[in-house]
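From the shared-data thread, chain only:
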Amino acid sequence: MKKRFWMRAWMGNAEVNTSPQPLANPEVRLQEPQEKRKLVKFWRIAASLLLWQGVILGTPAQAQLKQEKSLTYSELLKKVKNGDVTKIEIDEATKIAKVSLEGSNENEPPQRVALFDQNSLLLKELRQQNVPTEIRRSADNSAALGLIANLFFILLLLAGLMMILRRSASNSGQALNFGKSRARFQMEAKTGVLFDDVAGIQEAKQELQEVVTFLKQPERFTAVGARIPKGVLLVGPPGTGKTLLAKAIAGEAGVPFFSISGSEFVEMFVGVGASRVRDLFRKAKENAPCLVFIDEIDAVGRQRGAGIGGGNDEREQTLNQLLTEMDGFEGNTGIIIIAATNRPDVLDAALLRPGRFDRQVIVDYPDYKGRNNILEVHARNKKIDPEVCLETVAKRTPGFTGADLANLLNEAAILTARRRKDAITMLEINDAIDRVVAGMEGTPLVDSKNKRLIAYHEVGHAVISTLLPDHDPVQKVTLIPRGQARGLTWYIPDEEQGLITRAQLKAQITAALGGRAAEEEIFGEA
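Structure, as C-alpha cells:
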C-alpha cells in the first residue's frame, strides 16, 4: 500500500491536502472579549475603506477614458505618421491627449489617448508632420480630494472609537449599578385600574380602601391615636386578583408607587440582594409617603434555616435586610409595603408578625354574587346579546376565579368571531365553559359498540343523580369528546357549596358508580 501511494504521488495522481491549517483553536477564539472582537472588526472595515479610497482616487482618468471614445498610444503614432491628425491637445497634469482626426464631424468630440510620462517619440513625430500641438496643464484636484477623503475617514475612525469608549464606559457603569434596585417607579401610578374595576372580593377591597384613606387623609386616624399599618400581605390562590388589587390601590392613592418582584432581589452574587433592598427603601424614604408593592414575596421571604448547610445564604441575607428595613432601628415612616403570595405557609415567621405585615388580607375564590359582579365588569367591553343571562353563567361556574371568568368571556368572544356573529350568545358561552373545564372539542364518535357503551354509561350517571334528592341537578349529557373524556354529564349546583354533608357525599359516590351499573345492566358483567 505504501509503495502504491508513493508511486501515485510521484506520478502526480496523489491527492494533496492544501487547505490551510487553523492557526488557533476556534473555542479559544470564541472566548475573546466581545469589545476586542468589535474593535478588530471596526479596524478591518476602516482599512477596506481606505483601500477603496486609493482605488477610486488613483484612477479617475482611466474611468473617464472608458466612458468616452479613445485611441491607443500606438494607434496615435500611426495616425500621426499617416497625416490623419489635424490637431492635438496634451494635458501634462492628467497625461491625456485630445486628438482631432481628418474627416471627423465638427460636433464630434475629439478622441482621447492616455500618454506616458515621457513622450519624446510622439513629440518628434508631431514636429515632423507639422501637426498643431497645444500643451497645457489643467488644475489637479486629486490632492485636495485625497486630503478631504483622508480627513473624512479620520473623523469616521474617531467617531467609531468614541462609540466604543462610550459603550465600554456604560458597561462599567452597569457593573457599578449592579446592586441598585430594579423597582419600577412611578411618581403617580397610572395603571388604569380603580376600585370600581375590582369585583367579587368585597371584603379584601374594603380592607385596602382603608390603606388609601391612610395615605390621603392620615389625620383622621392619627387624631384618635391610630397608627398607619406598615405592611399588608395579600394571600390567596392564583388568579383571584391580588395583583389587580395592588394596581387599584396604586391608581386610587395618587402617591409615588414602587413595584418589584421578589425574584429580582435574589442573585447568585453575595450581597447583591441586600444592597437592592437597601436601595429600594432609600428611594422610598426620599419619596414618602409612598407605596411599595412586592409581588411573589415567597421568592425572598422563605423560612430561614430550612436548608441546614445547603441553603441559599444569599437569600437569607436578603430576607434579613428586608426585615430590618420594614421594622428596624430606624423605621420607615410613611412607607406602606404591599406584598402578594399564594404560598403563605413557607414564609418566615418574623416576616408575618405585627409591625412588619400588620394585616393579612385573604383574597379567596368569589362566591355566586361575586362571580356575577366579575362577569359584569368583564362584559363592559364586549358585545353580548341581550338574551344572555350572566346570573346563569355565574351559577354554572362554581370554583372559578376572576382570571378564569375573564378567560371564559374571552373564549366566548373568540368563538363568536370564528362563527361570524355580531354578538356573544348563550351558545358561545356554554361552549366556552365546556372548553375551559373539560378541554377542546374532539371528533364525534361514529355509531359502534363503543359509542353505545359510552352512551349507556353517561345515562347511568344522569338517571342515578336525578333520582337522588341530595345530588345536584343534571344540566346536560353529551357524547361529544372533550379532552380525555369520551362523554360527559354536567351538573348545576343549587347553592354555593361550602361544607359538604354526609348525604351529599354518598349521593356523589352513588352517581359516580351509576355509570358502571348501567353498563352491567345492558351489556352484562363482561
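Confidence is low (pLDDT under 50) at residues 1-32, 63-67.
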